[in-house]
Amino acid sequence: MYFSLMNYLLIPDKFKGSATAEEVIESLIRGIQKVDRAAHFHKIIASDGGDGFLSSIAQFKQLQTINIPSKNAYLEPSDSCYLWDKKSKTAYIELANTAGIAHLNNRTLRILDSSTIGVGIQLKDALDKGATTIYMGLGGSATNDAGMGILYAIGFKFYDQNNKELIPNSANLDQIQKIIPKAYPNTKFYIVNDVDNPLYGPKGAAAVYAPQKGATPAQVKKLDQSLEQLSKLIKRDFGIDEASTPGTGAAGAAAYGLKAFLNAAFIPGFEFLKDRAQLEQLISNENIDYIITGEGHFDEQSLYGKLIEGILKLAKTYEVPSLIVCGVSSVEPKHLENYPIDSIIELKSKGRSLDYCLSNTKTLIEEEIHNYLKSKL
User: Judging by DSSP bridges, how do beta strands 178-180 and 322-329 pair with one another?
Assistant: First the structure.
């Protein structure tokens, strides 16, 4: 046992499918305290706008939790919640809280049946309360409906070629021939997300993310064509052209619908977190000895506008050594030369299988951080 009085900033992302950001932090603390009983911790629950967005917000601000019945991605009854600041009339909504893959409990995914209507139910409740500002965390979705389900739930109308009203979902986007919007001029909308995908095409919502949501190659093609067709309809009828705007492909292109019709502004997930956590002040004022971050799969995408890249840039600015704890790392060393990384601690090493790591993530994080620090302190 050592008594080093080290000051740690713990700011990991979730290990998708195996541990939340809170659970990762708890495992890190247990492992560190085995070696450094006098350690002092600054804990920040991170989220890029996906799963855990509400938990990340709640750590910085006292907010009311609004619990309401809603619907999951397959329009089945589901409990849901969002955060509400009555004084400022500000709502915080997490798409993954209703239309997320995590809430489908490992069922067979049926992307064509999916819709964001459940998210819209939350949004409507906030608007009915008089919300003047709404932050929506987009990520972890099981949908590909371009946010039309959200818009339907807040009063937009959709019609097919026979002037029959549609309830929009991922399967029937290509049937939409007319949209009657509803305006919310007194509310500002913000989208928190870290992806830069456009609406459609090789890097669009369907091509990149639909396979992860159960889409076959034929379904990916259909969904991509539907998104393109929808964007042309909206451009023709409303003069709105956002299809190529980076980020509109987020969350099954929900970002596109919110940008096009609600004029939602995009906020990078790390910038949103940095401001609320006052990260720069914390690092510069608290004499941080180590910054520990990480995620399930540390890859090159992690270094392009993502949470970890932002953290590593701050570590470099303030010359604080950092550790990356991850399930798997596929980043080439040459891409890390400009960052003050002491080590990458990878769970899937020492011959461990991926299934074993996924089933024992929390225990392995505790063991590996303990073993690393024991060799250093």
Answer: unpaired
Closest CA to 148 of 238, 247, 237, 251: 251
Q: How far apart are CA 190 and CA 71, in angstroms?
A: 22
Sign of the Cα pseudo-torsion (164, 149, 215, 255, in order): positive
Q: How far apart are CA 90 and CA 84, in angstroms?
A: 6
Q: Give SS3 for 141.
A: strand
Q: What does the pLDDT look like over 54-99, one tens digit per residue?
A: 999 999 989 999 999 999 999 999 999 999 999 999 999 999 999 9
* All residues at 6 or more sequence positions from 99 whose CB lies less than 8 Å from its CB, including other chains: 72, 73, 114, 115, 116, 118, 119, 141, 142, 143, 149, 251
CA distance 288 to 324: 16
Measured CA to CA, the distance from residue 13 to residue 47 in angstroms comes to 6
C-alpha 2/C-alpha 146 separation (Å) is 54
Question: What is the value of pTM for the model shown?
Answer: 0.89
How many CB atoms are closer than 10 A to CB 88?
A: 11
What are the pLDDT digits (tens) for 98-108?
999 988 877 78
Single-letter amino acid, residue 30: R
